[in-house]
Amino acid sequence: MFRTILFFLIIPLWVWGTPVSITLEHALTWDQRMWGLMGRPELPPNHGMLFHLPGNGKETNFWMFNCLFDLSVAFIDSNNIILNIFDLKSYPNKMDPKRPVKSLKDLSLYPPNDPVVLFFREKAVKGPYSAKYALEMKKNWFQEHGIKPGDMLFWNKEKGTLIPSPNTKSKE
């Protein structure tokens, strides 16, 4: 099974005046971004993955190849503003059980023109060119916490905390 050292950080996140601690894995390298949350049977509550995008002005695609549960992804710009949020549907039954993917090396079992790869590419979502981060959480997590495009996250990188926007108002 593929293993990599990921940076885990527990972040106190204030959502509409209510603190929620989330645990994030940081996908910093190309390998970590490529592997993402593939092959995991579940994602614990309030647990997600923060992808640090290369920021090279290219579109970033997120697909659900070899993912076993549905996700939501928020694309965040360099000003920490959520640009958009997409739901990502998993299709574990589309994977070929005769070609299991347990490491990045196993991706070679699926050439670019393979029908499985083409299916997942067709279902991929495209992040905006200006996205610096992508935050994946369980499907509907953002909606359940009242988080929407246009919301701003303040991230104290020295202390590893997300701080609420001064414009955030308590939910009535």
Describe the protein's architecture and organization:
The structure is a single chain. With 172 residues, the protein is mainly beta. The chain has three helices and ten strands. The strands form three sheets. Strands 1-2-3-8-5-6 form a six-stranded mixed sheet. A two-stranded antiparallel ribbon has the order 4-7. It has a two-stranded antiparallel ribbon with strand order 9-10. β2, α1 and β3 form a beta-alpha-beta unit. 23% of the residues are buried. The N terminus and C terminus are likely disordered.
The strands making up the biggest β-sheet line up spatially as 1-2-3-8-5-6
Number of helical runs? 3
Topology, number of strands: 10
Looking at the structure, the CATH topology is Jelly Rolls
Strand content: 35-45%
Most strands sheet = 6 strands, mixed
Residues in helices, as a percent range: 10-25%
Low-pLDDT segments, ≥5 res: 1-8, 158-172
Based on CA atoms alone, the radius of gyration comes out at 16 Å
